[in-house]
Amino acid sequence: MALIKSISGIRGTIGGHPNENLTPLDIVRFSAAYGTMLAAENKTPKVVIGRDGRISGEMVNTLVVQTLVGLGIQVVDLGLSTTPTVEMAVKWEAADGGIIITASHNPKEWNALKLLNRDGEFISAEAGAQVLDLAAREDFQFVSVDKLGTITCNDTYLDKHIEAVIEYPLVNREAIKAKQFKVVVDAINSSGAIAVPRLLKALGVDEVIVLNGEVNGRFSHNPEPLPENLSGLSAEVKKSGASLGIAVDPDVDRLCFVCEDGSMFGEEFTLVAVADYVLGHRKGNTVSNMSSTKALKEITLNHGGEYFPSAVGEVNVVKKMKEMNAVIGGEGNGGIIVPDLHYGRDALIGIGLFLSALANHKNGLKSFRTRYPDYFISKNKIELEKNIDVKAIFDLIQKKYKKQPINTEDGLKIEFDSDWVHLRTSNTEPIIRIYAESNFETTANNIALRLMQDIKEFIQA
Question: Can you list the domains of the chain with their CATH numbers?
Fold first, then answer.
């Protein structure tokens, strides 16, 4: 059981004791802190709320909404939605902020409050620190009965989001429709079961098979869209003779594809392929976090642009994209950010752009994958016990590898000739992530294993 308080929101497991898990008291306290911050800037703020399909979603949603009403806030409740839809709705509503109720890729026992600013982007570190401080002090002032806030339910924004994808200049609906794709979707028992088939139909894809399409939050497998969790999708793509498979996470901001033979296209290459397509139509720069494949840098340079790495986390990628005027960016976990649509990871625009690129390719998805190098990223994690001094461990590792180029902007990134390894604590789980990339799978795995052994040795020391 866990409760993780970060500058971008609060995430934890449902049940247990307050301040140790995500209990109703914690939900109310952090909702009140966020609402109090907004109310200090605007006496009658408006906040957009939306949730994914988790078992605890309705309970958390009710607590959040009623807490905000108690602060005199106007709430626009989208109900079951996607993270990117809520982000876009904040701007469409000219709201002061938003709360997305989702724990993204975490298992079913988790939920979270993701906090947005008036631009529909994750709040800044400064605003996040203010929310944490207000929550710790419980410095709230609720309104009198005559000044209670209002609730407006609006379920139209998903269709508006899909329309925005269809109308996006680089999404080629005619080419997609002409290809007569047959698509299998793993909707992981959440919002994707509604959003992705609806988008595909709007794109002109008539043959869609949906796996795990009941929105009940009882995820049929680990909800993180990694190869080891997508065996069912892979098998169905082969069995049904589909053109491709699509997998999203529960809140539909991560995206990956399965080729027609059941092999993985590679979540790292979702962004690479989309960026290649976008850069082929408009020149510019790109950004991804430093745990993402080096292939994006190579693609960007080939198109005459510049590539810039950022710290891990959507808010950091967005900040760097704005600074460098990037035309496309995102994260190697299948998160696509298209800035002139909105500054947020969005699987729906990712699908539209990816299928547009594939529609302009003569052969199938397996052939399309050969356009890009076969770099391999070994993705690993070590669970942390309480009171582990991660900084001290990283200091020891940095000292051990002091002869190698090291970046300390976000944890430790160590370069070994053309290979790299990135160590960092997770923003969403009590773990250290260890990612390593090489041209060879064995080399990447060996680099990651070596660093994992270092971490374990230093923890035990």
Answer: 3-156 (3.40.120.10), 170-369 (3.40.120.10), 376-460 (3.30.310.50)
